[in-house]
Amino acid sequence: MQILDQVRDEINRENRKIQYLSDQVITNNLVQTNLQNATLIDHQAVMDTYYEVNQTFSGRKMLDYMKSLQIYNSSKELVYDLGYDKLRPDDIAPLVKQINEHKGNDIWTHVVTVNGVDCIVLAREIHSRSNWFHTIGYVFIAIKESLYSRDIYEDVNMGEGADLFMIDTAGSVLSSRSAAIPVGVKLSERSLMNQIALNEKEGQRAFTAKIKDNTALVAFSYDSAAGWYLVTTIPSSYLNKESRSILPYLLVVCIVCFLVSLLLTFVISGSISKPLHQLTHSMKNVASGNLQTSNEDFGKDEIGFLSGKFNTMVEQISDLVEHTKEEQIKKREIELQMLQAQINPHFLFNTLNSLKWTAVLNQATNVSDGLSALAELLRNTIVNRKEMISLSEELENIENYMVIQRLRFGALYEIDYQIEDGLMDSRVLKFILQPIVENSIIHGLDENNADNKIRIGAKKQGNRIEITVQDNGKGMPMQQALKLLDSVNQAEQRLSNIGISNVNERIKLHFGEEYGLRIQSEIGVGTKVSLTMPFNATGGSRDDQSACGG
After folding, report:
1. Does the pTM of the predicted model rise above 0.70?
2. Residue 450 in 3-state DSSP?
């Protein structure tokens, strides 16, 4: 294919020379003037035109191949003739028709001159330079066909018995170096042109075809500018002969390659299998419990990398086993300490109850109420291990917590509830409101304000429940407020270790990332914490049910 493309490019170079010469002719001022005033041309004008065109071609090597250069006006009347040979007058009208069929584009086709010479003619329209869409004449340059078949590609070796020729899109032979394919006639194998066009459309440039009862490889190169194909047909007998001649050499090369590859296979497989066997043996030792195993370092390849990682893994497993043993010892020690320090819940509640009635008998109402509230809070944390409780139970925990807080701070704040109807029985996570209320008291309580308020609201939004805790306290910068969601709160002076960040994480872990807390705060206005979770009006989650069943 490269040879065909090189020949095609060489033909194009010659064709461009011819086109360049025709450009000089059709743009010549005198030629333009005479063609636009064709009816007024006198003898002197014709002689001037001859002189101008002859000057253009004088000294050109192309004249050796040019058989004819003729200029016709738009009425198909001869205006100029170079005089070496002539096109047959009957060919002029068909050539003009072909130009018109190609919408004014240049055409390259086969003609026979008056003297019977096979030529390839370049036929072009001449347009007025003042109005490009106006055709004022035609130029026909006939080049001897031998320029192509003898000077360009006669000596191109495509193989024994191979033909090389040029055809147009209609299948007419423009040039040929073989007498078996005469110039100026259509291909005898009519189906060949159809196969060439089909393969060119599909992007294929070679195919096998039957030519005169013999199979041949057909290859072609298409010149879209000139509209012709350069085609070669190579007999299959030649191709097979070439294949048979290299077969012994190919067989020897294959045998040598096989032996070399076999040797390399043994060498490479040995270098791979040996370290793999050793690595497998080390793995079996580890599986049997021998953690003192180490594998040999096999370099920096993949096996060496695996060996190194295996040794690291064994060391980490050994460290982990030792660490686990230490953790188990510590765990047993802590369990022993817990057993030694464990208090019976019933003993604790009975004691609190006795203290409560002692306070009642001594008319210490606040102390009695505080002990009752503390007992209920402890009952909900120690005895009631359910993960999910009703909203009413959660609010009851808040009330008990507030009773205890009033013993400490007095009645410095009020708590207000705005619960939407039908939500008191909805299920929520236990102890999600107490840390938020506690945060409002610790960070939001303004001792100089006699009207401190905490408002707890709950409403249903689609398949969600939104609960808000809002205070009118001191407030805080939003940067500080957002930190409450990112860090674990300190446990000092709190009822439990459960902080706001813990509540947020519990909700997200239990229900998903789309649920959780949002905080809004403004200095001097107060803080608002909103939490969302799925609405559940009838029962708890699997955690709740399993806790209840235990």
Report:
1. no
2. coil
Which value, in Å, is the radius of gyration of the alpha carbons in the chain?
52
- Ordered mean pLDDT values, 10 residues apiece, the chain (550 residues): 88 89 86 74 67 67 77 87 84 92 89 92 92 90 90 85 88 88 82 86 87 85 87 84 74 90 83 74 79 70 75 83 80 55 56 68 70 74 76 91 78 84 92 89 74 92 94 87 68 56 88 92 91 76 38
Q: How far apart are CA 491 and CA 485, in angstroms?
A: 15
- Collect all residues with Cβ–Cβ distance below 8 Å to 343 and sequence separation of at least 6: none
Q: Is 238 exposed, middle or buried (0-12, 13-18, 19+ CB in 10 A)?
A: middle
What is the DSSP code (8-state) at residue 156?
-
81 and 209: one domain?
no
Other residues' Cβ atoms within 10 Å of the Cβ of residue 45: 16
Nearest to 481 by CA among 451, 522, 530: 522
The total number of residues written for the chain in this structure: 550
Token representation of residue 128: 């007025």
The total number of structural domains in the chain stands at 3
Helix, strand, or coil here: 144? strand
Q: Which amino acid is present at 465?
A: I
Residues 6+ apart with CB under 8 A from 410: none
CB 541 within 8 Å of CB 388: yes
Q: What is the CATH number of the domain that holds 125?
A: 3.30.450.220
Q: Strand 452-461 vs strand 413-419: parallel, antiparallel, or unpaired?
A: parallel
Please give the residue range of the domain that contains residue 230.
157-238
For residue 199, give the nearest of 218, 172, 174 by alpha carbon: 218
